[in-house]
């Protein structure tokens, strides 16, 4: 008759001494019982909340030897009280406490105008500094072919361009097709101006107004919404209501993320 060992405790929970590790936001660990791997986003009395790369949350008890850190068993403990640090950047990425800006890459991201650049900076600025990506603006796309030729994109200097109102058959789409190559990527959103990429709900309006063709779009928006016809002040109001990626439309979010991935892809 077979004899079974009475000790059925999993190997990762045996009583060998293991280090205690503060469950700081952003720490990536695995819960071996379920195989769930994610970053710490919250640690409360007796529990820790992890978020995996798909955005799924799971709550686990803070048990001795309850997690694996880089393949080794650890005991997570509640961090010592101190200044509360954000766990996420405005783009939704896991924040890297104390991260320094990387030396700028040769690659660049170009956007059409100053407002586009300010919006990208507000939401993705932390990510761009960590990656060493510089954003510049063009003041329109008419000169884009000459700018791309002068830049000379290559394997170690990729160029990404974000264009407003990139819809089939438009002038912008024809220019984009002319300059796109293995090392230069032009993408765009369908909005007439980047203002429209801010969700109306974030501004407390029902929808962005339709502006008759031939009328300056930004001025027309101000008139329709009853705002003073000062487009600079209006833009500062719009930008001030953007706090994170949640205030932006998916059509812009996806394109900016695509450009960041493109220019940071290893040669």
Automatic annotation (TrEMBL):
Residues 1-25 are annotated as: Disordered. It holds the Pfam family DUF3097_N. It comes from the Bacteria. Residues 20-79, 108-265 form the DUF3097 domain. This is DUF3097 domain-containing protein.
């Amino acid at each position: 008759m077979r004899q079974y060992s009475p000790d059925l405790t999993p190997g990762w929970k045996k009583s060998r001494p293991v280090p205690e590790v503060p469950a700081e936001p952003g720490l990536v660990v695995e819960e071996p019982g379920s195989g769930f791997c994610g970053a710490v986003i919250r640690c409360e009395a007796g529990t820790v909340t992890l978020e995996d790369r798909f955005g799924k949350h799971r709550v686990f008890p803070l048990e001795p030897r309850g997690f694996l850190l880089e393949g080794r068993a650890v005991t997570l403990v509640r961090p010592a009280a101190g200044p509360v640090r954000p766990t996420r950047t405005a783009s939704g990425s896991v924040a890297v406490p104390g991260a320094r800006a990387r030396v700028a890459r040769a690659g660049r991201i170009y956007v059409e105008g100053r407002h586009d650049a300010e919006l990208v900076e507000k939401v993705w600025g932390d990510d761009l500094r960590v990656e060493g990506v510089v954003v510049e603006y063009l003041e329109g796309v008419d000169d884009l072919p000459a700018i791309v030729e002068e830049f000379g994109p290559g394997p170690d200097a990729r160029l990404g361009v974000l264009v407003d109102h990139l819809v089939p058959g438009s002038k912008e789409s024809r220019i984009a097709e002319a300059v796109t190559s293995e090392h230069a990527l032009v993408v765009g959103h369908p909005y007439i101006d980047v203002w429209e990429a801010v969700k109306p709900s974030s501004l407390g309006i029902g929808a962005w107004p339709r502006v008759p063709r031939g009328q300056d779009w930004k001025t027309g928006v101000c008139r329709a919404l009853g705002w003073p016809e000062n487009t600079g002040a209006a833009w500062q109001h719009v930008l001030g209501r953007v706090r994170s990626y949640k205030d932006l439309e998916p059509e812009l979010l996806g394109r900016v993320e695509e450009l960041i991935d493109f220019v940071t892809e290893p040669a």
